[in-house]
């Protein structure tokens, strides 16, 4: 039996608007990835087990030298049943850990290039061909978690980098704040902290990373107070009904707090 390695990711909240709905915010299985041709750019890719092939929006390719990548054209049938002739580009896909460090590499993954990015979904979708076909996936909706397991053959063999990575959910939350989606940004901000904490204290098997953090002497009482404010704001964003809108300055304050704490955690030798 082949040896395998695995990672656990938090499901991310959809960017859907809740202005006309009292339904709970939905969560989707998406993971941080990098493309070989643009390794410095960390972004989310949606996991779609029903898709035969991966999909990428052309806007993501604009800052890349994609013209040199092999491509072809094929007739592709969409979910509506309509068949269209679309461009397929082949690239190396790098799946990252929850804190953004490169983990798995898949070569020559085919991507259908589209021109319309959904407003409530990432601009990249990972399908079966050459990607999900190599993985084991396990969804835990009550815990809002996705476990991914892969043969170690796909692991990137490199020396451990001293570079400190910001979780991809922080980057996505910053984009949401710029878009004015403050309510959707808050769960992702706190999720970023939980991802970093989980990776640091996994060996201690703590069930509540935030409670663990609150008991640490190296975190000042002032920062613990700011963290509690950020968590309360997240709870309001997830469970509230838009009766009291979340302000831009509140989202930005929560972002500063979590970034500061993440920097402190990553600076601790474990």
Structure, explained:
The structure is a single chain. It is built from 6 helices and 12 strands. It is α+β, with helices and mostly antiparallel strands. The chain folds into 2 domains: 151 residues, Acid Proteases (Cathepsin D, subunit A, domain 1, Beta Barrel), CATH 2.40.70.10; 99 residues, Nucleotidyltransferases  domain 2 (Four Helix Bundle (Hemerythrin (Met), subunit A), Up-down Bundle). Strands 4-5-10-6-9-8 form a 6-stranded mixed barrel. The chain has a 3-stranded antiparallel β-sheet with strand order 1-12-11, with no helix packed on it. Strands 2-3 form a two-stranded antiparallel ribbon. A hairpin with a 5-residue loop joins strand 8 and strand 9. The two termini are 32 Å apart.
Query: Radius of gyration over alpha carbons?
Result: 19 Å
- Average residue-wise pLDDT: 80
- Uncertain runs are 17-23, 158-162
State the separation between the terminal residues, measured CA to CA. 32 Å
Q: What level of helicity do the residues show? A: 25-40%
CATH class of the largest domain: Mainly Beta
**What name does the CATH topology of the largest domain carry?**
Cathepsin D, subunit A, domain 1
Number of strands: 12
Could you outline the blueprint of secondary structure elements for this entry?
Layout lengths: L3 E7 L1 E2 L13 E2 L1 E6 L2 E10 L6 E4 H4 L9 E7 L5 E14 L5 E13 L9 E3 L9 E5 L4 E7 L16 H12 L2 H20 L7 H6 L6 H19 L8 H19 L4
Parallel strand pairs: 5-10, 6-9
Antiparallel strand pairs: 1-12, 2-3, 4-5, 4-8, 6-10, 7-8, 8-9, 11-12
Helix pairs in contact: 2-3, 2-6, 3-5, 3-6, 5-6
């Amino acid at each position: 039996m082949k040896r395998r390695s695995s990672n656990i990711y938090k499901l991310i909240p959809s960017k859907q608007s809740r202005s006309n709905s009292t339904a709970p915010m939905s969560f989707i299985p998406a993971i941080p990835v990098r493309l070989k041709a643009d390794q410095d750019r960390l972004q989310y890719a949606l996991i779609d087990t029903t898709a035969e092939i991966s999909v990428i929006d052309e806007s993501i390719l604009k800052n890349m030298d994609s013209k040199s990548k092999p491509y072809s054209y094929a007739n592709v049938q969409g979910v509506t049943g309509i068949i269209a002739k679309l461009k397929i580009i082949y690239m190396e896909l790098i799946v990252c850990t929850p804190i953004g460090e490169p983990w798995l590499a898949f070569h020559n993954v085919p991507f259908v290039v589209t021109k319309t990015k959904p407003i409530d979904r990432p601009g990249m979708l990972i399908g079966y061909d050459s990607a999900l076909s190599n993985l084991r996936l396990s969804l835990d909706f009550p815990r809002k978690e996705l476990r991914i397991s892969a043969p170690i053959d796909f692991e990137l063999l490199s020396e451990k980098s001293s570079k400190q990575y910001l979780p991809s959910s922080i980057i996505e939350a910053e984009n949401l704040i710029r878009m004015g989606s403050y309510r959707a940004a808050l769960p992702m901000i706190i999720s970023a902290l939980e991802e970093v904490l989980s990776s640091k204290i996994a060996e201690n098997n703590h069930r509540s990373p935030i409670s663990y953090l609150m008991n640490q002497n190296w975190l000042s009482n002032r920062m613990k107070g700011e963290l509690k404010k950020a968590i309360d704001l997240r709870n309001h964003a997830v469970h509230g009904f838009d009766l009291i809108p979340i302000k831009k300055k509140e989202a930005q304050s929560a972002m500063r707090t979590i970034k500061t704490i993440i920097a402190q955690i990553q600076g601790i030798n474990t």
